[in-house]
Amino acid sequence: MLVRMKYLHQKQPNGVYYFRKRVPGDLVERVGKRLWMQSLKTSDLIKAQLAAKRLDRDLEATWAKLRQPPESPIVEAQRIYEALTPDAANPSGLSGTDIYLDCLEGKQPIELVAEYEGSLRMLDDPSANLSNTEKKVLDLIVGRSVTLSDAVAYYIEMSGKRNDRKFTQSVRQALAFFVDALGDRPIDQYKRREVEERLVSGVQSEGLKTATVSRRLSTVKSAVNKAILNLEYSFKNPFEKHTIPGLRDDEDSRSSLTAVQQAALLALLNKPENSDTLNGLRILFDTGMRVSECVGLRIEDVHLEADIPYIKLHRNPLRRLKTKQSQRSIPLIGYALMGIKLQLELSQGGEWLFPRYIDLEREEVKNDGASNAMNGRLKALGFTCHCLRHNLKDRLRLADVSMDHIRELQGWSRSDQASRYGEMSLLGVLHDKLKRIEILS
Asked: What's the CA gap between 336 and 280, in Å, rounded?
C-alpha cells in the first residue's frame, strides 16, 4: 500500500515531488520545525510514492525514539566510568581515568585553575564547568556514593520499565516519601534511626496506611540494594531490616461483599448480555484472576475440551504476570465457564480472547481500559472489580478450603503442591474445591 497523496507535494507542475508532513505538536521544540519537507528527488509519481513510504516509516520511528524518556545521567555516568580502563597503547602510560580527568580539567575557566593552582580539587568547586553526567562520573572515580535520587533513577533504568508509567510513578512516590523529609543525600549518609523515625511519622503524623509505608520502604530498599551491588559499594543498606509496628492492622477489609451487594452482583451477571465487560466480570467472579490476567488471555490458553475445563495462565509477549507464582492452571466453573464460552463467540476465532483490550502496535494489554469499563458497571454496587478477587478468597474460606489451595488458585506464594499432586491431579483437586462455592451450575 502506498503513502497517502497528502504527504506528496509539487512546487510546480511536472516538477520534483516533495514529502511534506506536519511534525507532532509535542515534538516541534525538539525537531526545530513545525513542518517536515524533504525533496524526494524524482518527478515520477510511483517512485515518489515509494520513496515517501520509506521516509514516512523512518520519520515515525525517529519520532517514537524522541518521545522516549532520556537516559538518566547516573546510567550514562556508570557506562563512561566502566570504560575508563588502563590504556596500554598510550605511550604516556596514562590510564583512561587520568585522561578523562585531564579533559575535565581542560574545560575549567582560567580563574578557577589559577585559584586551585592546577589541583584537581578545582573539579569539586561549585563553580566548576561540569555537566550533571560529568559530576556523577567524578563521584564514581573518587568513590563517593550516589544520591538517593540517583539510586532510584538507576533502579528504574535497570528494571527495563522506564516507559511503564505506573511503575515509575510508584517508584518516584517512594523516593519523595523519604527525600521530602530527610533530603536527597548520598545513600551512605542516611542513618537507620532517621529512616525508622520517618516510617513512624508517615503512619502517625501523615495518616498513611502501614501497608503503604511498607511498600514505599520496600521500593527504596530495592533501589539502594541495586546501586550498592552494581556500583560495588561496601557499606550496608540503611533502608534494610526495618520493622513497621502493626503492619496491616489498620487495613480496611476489601474482601467481603454484603448480602445486598452479592445479590446485586449476581443479578448483573445473570443479565442476558454478551459483552466484553460483563464476560470479564463473570470470569473474575469465579476464578479470582487479576484484570490484566483475564483480558490478556489468548484463545490457546482456554481448554474447554478437557475433562475439567480450565485456563492455562502463563506469561505472553504482551502481558507479564505479577510474580512467578502467578503462572497456574485455573479450573472453570459456573459464571467463569459461562463468561469464557460467551467471550469465545465475541472473539470470532482470533488470537486473543479480549481483542478489544489488545494493542498490538504498542505491544501491551490495555489493562486500565478494561478496569475502567468493569468498574463502571460495578460503581452503583459500591465496590470495584478488584474486590472480586478478595471475595473469592472469602467464599472459599467459608467453604473450609485450605489456604494452600486458595494460594494455588489465586497465584500467591505457593507450597510444593504441584510436585506433590502432579499438574493434572492438582487441577482436579482445585476443581473440587471450587465446586463447593459454585452458584451457577
From this structure: 9
